[in-house]
Amino acid sequence: MNSFTKFFHELMNPHCPDCLREHSERYEERNHCRTCDALEMQLSIANQRITSLLNKEVEPRVTEDTEPKRQVIQTRHVPWHVKRQMLENESRAKAIANARSAKPDVKSEQGLEIDNDKINAVVNTEVNNASDNIKDLEEAVGISTH
Q1: How many domains, in total, are found in the chain?
Q2: Which of 130, 134, 137 is nearest to 97 (CA)?
Q3: How far apart are alpha carbons 43 and 49 in whole angstroms?
């Protein structure tokens, strides 16, 4: 058929079985070229990559859960008189311990007997009292060291 008669035939008989078969054959030939197949394959690979990346983003990460969570340390303002009392108590305890450790040498040279157990007991009680006072002050102020 020439193009003129073909045009009128398609115009008058749009659902002609012969024309539909011919049209579908031409359409299939156009859809199955090598370039189109390669492009379809590349498109499907790209879509698979995108879906796998999206699935990885949606899944929870296990490595973050195993790491210990770090807590933010918030510093609090300590009044100077409380800080001074804490420092004084610490320095008293150190001075007492130093004085007690230095005295046995002097007394032992003079011939006086020294009972180390008594000295250690006194130093320990004084240090414990100082640390209890510090803990009481920290609780009063609202500072927690533990």
Answers
A1: 2
A2: 130
A3: 10
Separation between Cα atoms, residue 110 and residue 104, nearest integer Å:
10
Q: What are phi and psi of 7, to 5 degrees?
A: -60, -50
> Does residue 75 lie in a domain region?
no
Please indicate, yes or no, whether residues 13 and 60 belong to a single structural domain of this protein.
yes
Measure the CA–CA gap between 119 and 126, rounded to whole angstroms: 11
Report pLDDT digits (tens) over 115-134: 677 777 777 777 777 777 77
Q: What is the mean pLDDT of residues 41-70?
A: 77
Separation between Cα atoms, residue 137 and residue 83, nearest integer Å: 9
Residue 71 inside a domain? The answer is no
Q: 11-41: per-residue pLDDT in tens?
A: 888 778 888 888 777 766 655 677 877 888 9
User: What residues make up the domain containing 18?
Assistant: 3-66
